[in-house]
Write a structure and sequence with these properties.
It contains 15 helices and twelve strands. By secondary structure, it is α/β, with parallel strands linked by helices. The strands form three sheets. Strands 1-3-2-4-6-5-10 form a seven-stranded mixed sheet, with helices on both faces. Strands 8-7-9 form a three-stranded parallel sheet, with helices on both faces. Strands 11-12 form a two-stranded antiparallel sheet. α9 links the parallel β7 and β8. Bound molecules: glutamine. The site of glutamine has 14 residues, from loops.
Length: about 450
């Protein structure tokens, strides 16, 4: 089956002319047509456009992703295709330029098959906050795929594409990867250009890939990583050959720190313990560590991220960006546009952020949260002086049911308890599927 092949194998078969790019896209298109009505992973599928691109693709022997289908979260701009960010406010906005990740992938022969569903403006942990429809978890259609990059996670989990991109501000690649049983990477801050990614919280946002095997993940990361003069926060550090590192990776001698944690469902805990034992059997050195500040990560994140969002989203006013709803004067136009265009969660975040930044509250909330951020970053970095990695479960539970957390925003926020600290610290993190329990991945 073509759709079950890893990306590196697809690229190889295309370069050796055993498969044509068109055959590959057609195979994925067919799979999409049969599964998408149940899953609803895509806001704007572009398989037809991809077929045309595939016909004119001239694969060269150097192309790392020749003819490989890739799905993009709908907050990453692809020229000529709508970028909605899962919001009514941007419905119909066609991107005028390619994000840097998109042009880099295209230069390596990748073909884009569509824009995937997401929580509106990447705010959420279940994709239920999309203004358009819910995306279903392929393991159990009654459950959420996680979020906010739920559509991209589902695309890879159901093999509608072997690879996809999401964005991770506080866990939005890793948490849906975990809920859908695929691999999700949040690269180091600055490693991947954010140019062309619609900003949520600029000091935390990072584009990250989904894959179903480590080699594919290394391949796509190698393509998207690296300095970009269009993103002032992008790093000039040379890009490693991740493909080579994956192949020579060794568990023997690995120094693994395991922070104490609680409040995790027993299926996740059991699976995590088995993973630790297996690391140990393969020669890793495991030690429990205590972290003093990490329990404050959620609190700090939910002050900093909404603060940055309240400023970033100010441009969606119906004049500069967004579908305008006209009022009697400019002020009323702003109000009507935002009131009609933004969903409940986005409004909640803007309110929280505006409040935390307002004079009189700035010191008590935003500044305090920034101090906590520094403490957390220093703490994690000091652990990494003595250890190679820190391991934790990605999420406290497996995929939950639709509606379970919609009436209680705080319980939704707590799904990010293990993921947000690395964004605050700018560190890289990966979520790996470890096992399947009662037909749900953890
Ligand atoms: N779930 C988190 C939030 O709602 C993370 C979002 C993200 O990483 N984009 O803010």
């Amino acid at each position: 089956m073509i759709w079950s092949l890893p990306a590196y194998e697809i690229a190889r078969l295309i370069k050796s002319k055993e498969l044509s790019p068109k055959e590959v896209i057609s195979a994925f298109f067919e799979r999409f047509q049969s599964l998408e009505p149940k899953l609803r992973a895509f806001i704007t599928p572009t398989f037809e456009r991809a077929l045309k691109e595939a016909e004119s693709l001239k694969p060269s022997s150097e192309m790392l992703l020749a003819g490989v289908p890739i799905a993009l979260k709908d907050n990453i701009n692809q020229k000529g295709v709508e970028t909605t960010c899962g919001s009514q406010l941007l419905k119909g906005s066609v991107a005028l330029f390619d994000a840097t990740v998109v042009s880099r992938l295209r230069a390596e022969g990748a073909v884009f098959v569509g824009k995937t569903n997401m929580d509106e403006f990447a705010m959420g942990s279940s994709t239920e906050y999309s203004a358009f429809f819910k995306t279903h978890n392929p393991w159990d259609l009654e459950r959420v795929p996680g979020g906010s990059s739920g559509g991209s996670a589902v695309s890879v989990a159901a093999r509608l594409s072997p690879l996809a991109l999401g964005s991770d501000t506080g866990g939005s690649v890793r948490q849906p990867a975990s809920f859908c049983g695929v691999i999700g990477l949040k690269p180091t801050y600055g490693r991947v250009s954010r140019y062309g990614l619609v900003a949520f919280a600029s000091s935390l946002d990072q584009i990250g890939p989904f894959a179903f095997n480590c080699k594919d993940l290394a391949l796509i990361t190698k393509v998207i990583a690296g300095f970009d003069k269009s993103d002032s926060t992008s790093s000039k550090v040379a890009v490693e050959d991740y493909l080579e590192s994956v192949q020579r990776a060794e568990v023997r001698g690995l120094r693994v720190a395991v922070p104490k944690f609680e409040g995790v469902e027993s299926a996740v805990e059991g699976c995590f313990d088995r993973f630790l034992r297996s690391l140990e059997e393969h020669g890793a050195y495991i030690q429990e560590v205590s972290l003093k500040y990490i329990h404050l990560a959620i609190n700090a994140y939910y002050v900093i991220a909404p603060s940055e969002a309240s400023s970033n989203l100010a441009r969606f006013d119906g004049v500069r960006y967004g579908n305008t709803v006209y009022g009697r004067d400019l002020d009323e136009t702003y109000k009507k546009t935002r009131s009609a265009g933004f969903g409940k969660e986005v409004k909640r975040r803007i309110l929280m952020g505006t409040f935390a930044l307002s004079s009189g509250y700035y010191d008590a909330y935003y500044l305090k949260a920034m101090k906590v951020r520094t403490l957390i970053a220093n703490e994690l970095k000091s652990i990494l002086r003595d250890f190679d990695i820190i391991v934790m479960p990605t999420t406290p539970t497996r995929a939950f049911k639709f509606g379970e957390k919609m009436s209680d925003p705080v319980s939704m926020y707590l799904s990010d308890i293990f993921t947000v600290s690395v964004n605050l610290a700018g560190l890289p993190a990966i979520s790996l599927p470890l096992c399947v329990y009662e037909n749900l991945p953890c």
